[in-house]
Give the backbone structure.
Amino acid sequence: MIRLFAVTFLASLLVGPASGQQANPASPAPSNPGGMPAGTREQAPGVPAPHQTNDADRIFIHAAAIGGLAEVDAAKLAAKKGGRRVQEFAQRMIHDHAAANDRLSALATAESIPLPDRLDDEHSTMRDKLEQASGTQFDRTYIEGQITDHQKTAQLLEYEIGSGENADLKKLASDILPTVLDHLRMAQMINSESSQAAERAPR
Amino acid sequence: MPKALKLTFTLVGAAVLGMAALADSLPPDATYRPLPTLPLGQVRANDEAEKPLVAQRQQTLLQQRYDLSDRPIPDVMMSGLRKPVQGGVRVKLPAGVTWDSLADMSPDEIRQRGLLPAGFRPLPHVKQATGGQVFPNNEIDEIGRQEQRNLRRFDVDFDFPDRFTPEFPPPIFLTSHPELGDVSHGQLLTIKNYYQLMVGLITPVQMEGLRLLLTPFPQEEFNQTEDRKSADQSLGVTCLDCHANFHTNAAFHLTPDVRPQAARFRLDTVSLRGLFNQQLHGSKRSLRSVEDFTQFEQRTAYFNGDHVSAQRKGVHLPDRFDQVPMMAQMQNMIDFPPAPKLDPTGHLDPTKATAQELAGEQVFLGKGHCAQCHVPQTSFLDNNMHDLKLERFYDIGQTENGLVMLPDGPIKTFTLRGIKDSPPYMHDGRLLTLADTVEFFNLVLGLKLTQDEKDALVAYMLTL
């Protein structure tokens, strides 16, 4: 009973007001009706009814879910095996991505979109590499992977913000993009600090 | 199989697997313009129904950022004497700070406390997801009257109030006839009147260049396909539809140089006055000649960085050895408006300038660091691109009206000659007055100017 209530409550939070009808510039912006899939239900002309997704939305959910899964998975390893800076970074990743993953999976459930439950080939390969690496090599591999992943995630979120149809998913993308760019900046900083340290170290 | 060959195969196999293991890339429409999926009638009905809401969102944003009231500087008109120059700082301050208290804070503190005035941040397009060229009403009306060509979009209207755009039509000054002054006769140059206005003033080569600059060719939003945003099938747009009378009418677009769509920043049309001394063209592309720019913009349906989509709508490929030089040579004849207080080296003549203007010049050359890029002797240009690194002052990645605000990176230096004639300012038009630009650079360059110095700088820029 409590569970049912929680689900209903969550769903009501997710539906929210019809974002397309607000004049608030911070809410998801209208998309180009030229790109709206044929047969889209509309709550007002040009404004898709809630709980619909276009190709961009579905590509976004899939890629973001895999990315989020891999992120937490790698960070748990890094929190054990990494150096001090890397461990701190990994803790932040676990915290931030867990929250984003929860929001994403709640939305996917609300939109009845199945989420991937295991890593893709790219991230499995990375996982293998990380398991084999240790010490400085581990830190370097992990942080380089993090830089690539966060670059890709930022582009994915920007793509969804511009091309998605589902207002809740677009809102999620625009809410988490600043954090993803902040993570990218942190990873780049750790990377440049460690390469400078390596240059200073006696050979 | 020989061992070495087997090893090679194994390595190649590993490399292929390595490639295959890469995650899927973003879909093609992250870079390429998607084909429309719905019939034009339905798209138009949707766009028209959404139009008031789209306008209201942008007006809400402008009201949050700027004081849009009518406060002209007394007795200061644009060069054609057709429009007063608006004054005062129009960017609104966040609660609890003053311009001086803000200038005392470090970039980090401003970023962490979220205190960068919203009007200093990148300015969104009215409808970012669609983007494209948007013309002000005066241009739309005059082209409609003279040519019966429709430049009005059914999805969006121009956003800034008319008082923050250049005078219309702007005067035209020719380097080949400085003695004549404005040769526009108060008219907007169009394909209908150009010959009559210019015969006897320009050469046959320039005349042919001018004709091409005034001939409409298909553009992303103005063409014959279902992907257009004009109600009727359109012949397209001309170069001078935005660069009205070789100046600017503040028509705007999105940068051609960035993808995906949400990250493309807005572009305000630049004036073509003084093009003869400008060696970089395109705010980010650093094209090295006006010939390159002129040719290329015809290739991509004007300014979308997309030759693929342009191909479908009809591209114009002007001949590089015959037509492009004529278009370029015409553009290179356009002069700045007269600046009677400047001497031939670009400095104020002390016998003509006021004490405040002279004080402003000293700030410009010294404490303000303005002249480091806006070099007086070279038409207030340095023919370079610079990165102001505004991202030191705000958290990047925030979305406003569909625009993801990201670092702009290097942008070319724009001239300051005749600057009072070309509001709004900066590459995206985010600043409305010269006083706004002074506060912007005071903060971004950490200048700590006094109020007297700021006022003097504005007075000086009005003389340029």
Q: What stands out?
A: Residues 1-22 of chain B have pLDDT under 50 and may be disordered.
